[in-house]
Design a protein that fits this description.
globular, about 260 residues
Length: about 260
């Protein structure tokens, strides 16, 4: 379980934090949110889907549009891109995972606060990276985390607007992903994708509107990423067979940095 707590001088001034060295924490995540700036890179490495966006008030029975997400496994609790030794088996790591154990959360209404998962095992009372410097200011490493998450959050708002425009034009449809398992074929429910037929049938003015909103390129990213389902299937087969060379076959280098604007 996670327990995110806002970082404050009163609570964390004399503590530090450790950078994570394993993606074991991501093992239960078979779906991870993506923002638009990530999609061009993620398209070449991960299958991208659209899923209902949870309501802001936490009421999961309500949906407020859609959001992009990386499909990392075929069932909850199984992330096929995490190796048994905790390494990431892919060419791209979603920003939502790279920021572990931090995230931005809304407190007191609309105010965003930087929070840390105090149950992550990365809170260090005796060493590690300091939260604050000797002058009581936010320490440089933590400032980098804040800047990164602030950029991601700003782009998340833009991406939500893009998804809303795609929905308004009727371009989001259920995507029944079929999976072949030991007990036969089954269909993954609750996933959505771009309706390419409807996209191609849009009038010119609608296409221009989507282009200007940055929605057209992201729609094609999702469509192109569908080819990565094959990689996901291979990872599933390798895991099921407990292939001894799993890491050698599917481990790819990653620079660990999300470059905005590339």
């Amino acid at each position: 379980m996670s327990r995110f707590v806002p970082i404050s001088a009163d609570r964390h001034a004399n503590q530090g934090w450790q950078r994570f060295s394993s993606y074991d924490f991501a093992q239960p995540a078979h779906l991870v949110s993506l923002v638009g700036i990530e999609l061009p890179k993620a398209t070449m490495a991960l299958p991208i889907v659209l899923v209902p966006r949870p309501a802001v008030d936490g009421n999961s029975s309500e949906s407020r549009g859609f959001m992009f997400a990386a499909l990392l496994g075929f069932e909850p609790g199984v992330n096929l891109f995490v190796a048994p030794d905790g390494r990431w088996l892919g060419r791209y790591v979603p920003a939502a995972l790279r920021s572990h154990p931090f995230r931005l959360a809304r407190i007191e209404g609309e105010r965003l606060a930087l929070c840390i998962d105090e149950d992550s095992g990365l809170l260090d009372a005796e060493g590690g990276e300091p939260f604050f410097d000797a002058a009581g200011e936010v320490a440089a490493p933590l400032k980098q985390v804040m800047d990164f998450l602030t950029q991601v959050e700003a782009n998340r708002v833009t991406t939500q607007n893009v998804c809303d425009r795609l929905q308004v034009h009727g371009l989001i449809q259920p995507w029944p992903v079929k999976v072949q398992g030991a007990e036969g074929e089954r269909t993954l429910e609750g996933l959505f994708g771009i309706n390419e037929v409807a996209l191609n049938a849009l009038p010119a003015e609608a296409l221009v509107e989507l282009r200007d909103a940055g929605a057209l390129s992201l729609a094609y990213c999702q469509l192109l990423s569908m080819q990565q389902l094959g990689l996901l299937g291979e990872l599933a087969q390798a895991r099921a067979a407990a292939a001894p060379k799993l890491n050698d076959v599917f481990s790819f280098p990653d620079d660990g940095v999300l470059h905005f604007g590339d």
